[in-house]
Amino acid sequence: MGTTKYEGGDERVICRLPPPKDQRGLKAFLWNPEAKTVLGRTGKSWAQIGVFYVIFYFCLALYFSLLMFIFLRTLEPDTPKYTGADSLLTNPGLSFVPRTYHDELRPTIIYDPTNDQSSSPYVNSINKLWKAYDPRPSNAVDCQNDGVFRKADDPPCLFDLAATNTSCSPDDRWGYNTNSPCILLKLNRMFHWRPQPPESFEGLPEGLRSYIFNKSSEDPETALSQNAWVWCESEDVKIEQLSPGLPLSFFPYHMQEGYLSPLAPVRLLDLKAGQKVKVDCRVWAKNVEPKVGIRRTGQASVWVELTGEAPSK
Fold this sequence. Notes:
16 strands, 22% strand
């Protein structure tokens, strides 16, 4: 080991000689009996660094836990912190079942009505949603047509599929054993959000205006003002839509026990084997934007393809 002398008689180390040859190998690194080191450290050194990291990570965990405690104290367990104008969500999105797979990044339903294995994923997807509706929740009440927004302590409204007059039913596997499959549309739940019905018939699709005037059981102006509307159109196939209205009495969502979103069932009629059709659906309400930036929110599209001939009736 080299040394040098400075004024005052101090002797200091200025360089360190390499260790002897027998102390340079892996074996000596793992355990050096002369220096009594393991992995280059003595027992005392390992104890010191171990105590340091135990204290360091304990303090780090304590700091993180304190931050999480403070953060969670600012949140309500059953209410979002930001709602309405304070939320990043301007309006709920439009969703549908059955779940689809993506063909060329497009949501697509492909099935053979003569093959249960082909159609079962779609039937099971709808049945999974339908389990919440049938049997009816014990606290649900019939308020479908009163046109009044619900209060936080009001019981949820009952959604009765039979009242929609639709031909869609679990009894015929939602049409997936025929060439006329069903799709159920609904608005995603959004806390405290209240739909604002269209103020006039201007701008509404012709088919929706015709439904409100000719098929609705209520006065057209009353029906228009008591519902948000979901309407689907296609250039390739006819669509049965017997209940496109989403009554205001189902809104807003307050995390009520047994709450059920209203559904708008549609049936595509008489698809042909090998035919691939596109269906575009949109929510019609004053405070629902069909598209926010690049996100499609108040609208949805689905492609449907029949791969086999429907069984004869």
